[in-house]
Amino acid sequence: MLPKIKGQENALELLDKAIENDRIAQAYLFYGSDGVGKFTTALYFGMAVNCLATSELKPCGECDACHKFLQLEHPDFVYLFPTPNLNLSVEGEIKNTDAQKSYEAYLQNKINTPWKDFFFKDATEIRKESITLLNKRLELSIHEAKYRIVIIEDADMMNNATANAFLKTLEEPPERTIIILITERLPLILPTILSRTQPVYFKPLTRGVIEEILINEFEINSALARSASRICAGNLKTAIRIASESESLSSNWAFEIFSLAAEENDLGYLELAERYKKQQTIDQVIDLLKYIRIIASDLGSLSTNPDSEITNIDKLDFLKPIAEANLGIDDRLYDFLLFLEDLNRKVEGYANLNLVLTNLYLNCKHLLKP
């Protein structure tokens, strides 16, 4: 089952056996870090149990049912995720025009480019009104599917009132309905919800699996696929974003910052900051920090052993002279990596990106020339 899902053999085996033995649980909890295939597996699992193909290979991805699931529009499919206040009517209609546009843009991003994170302008959560509408929907008869599928993404973003309202659904689940909760933050799920779901763990993807996916499914050249797989920390979404950039924008940006830091060219940095002004988005800066981290690690390795195996092997002619000209990088590397982790948290917390990048440049200078 689910041949498109890579690197999650244990999770797939559990789901395969559930289908094979006709012992499908009414509620699952898919948990694990971001970008490892939780949502894709949940969607394909729903497709597999409802696929109309006569062959044993399910889901086929081509029948009417599979097509509707892939477009997130099957009449027996319910998809909930954290949103701003949509100002829902009693019938579930979104009355806020701007929220409607953002909601539709989120769904299109999920269908066409799911590896790209989507950010709403306002604070998001899974609201009680959404669970109320879900419960009303579950009271209705199933239209055409064998199993009705409910996917609740980022289920940890239910507040207590929402979680308690949802708990009633779990206590008396409708027949022929499969509810799949998805989370990256398992400790935030209420114990009462945990006890009523079957947990399925999704492990971080290995570098080899990510590299294989980038090369075979996205036609990324092997050198870039190798770098992206090392930088992404087991997150396929991050790897795809990095590797899919035209000439790897984040990589070029990171090397330019180190080049200017090595030259102590502050005026050059100000010009660089102006040139990359449009690229100052949360996603882009987070990817930039990952490249900075791997470049710094390469410099630390070369400073202790000029013959070390590094990630950016194609940039050896650039990195080696910097490592040789700036002694003690390896001694300062640990503090620099801690600084990058702190900077990453600030970016995710919506810090001023211009100040973040200036701080980054100054600390790159300090790593090279304290």
TrEMBL record:
Keyword tRNA-binding: no
Molecular-function GO terms, alphabetical: DNA-directed DNA polymerase activity
Keywords of this entry: Nucleotidyltransferase, Transferase
Database matches in SUPFAM superfamilies: P-loop containing nucleoside triphosphate hydrolases (SSF52540)
Coiled coil: none
GO biological process: DNA-templated DNA replication
InterPro entries tied to this protein: DNA_Rep/Repair_Clamp_Loader, P-loop_NTPase
EC class (word): transferase
Enzyme Commission code(s) on record: 2.7.7.7
Keyword set includes Kinase: no
Chain segments annotated as transmembrane: none
Gene3D superfamilies in the cross-refs: P-loop containing nucleotide triphosphate hydrolases
Protein name: DNA polymerase III, delta prime subunit (HolB-like)
Classification lineage: Bacteria, Pseudomonadati, Candidatus Cloacimonadota, Candidatus Cloacimonadia, Candidatus Cloacimonadales
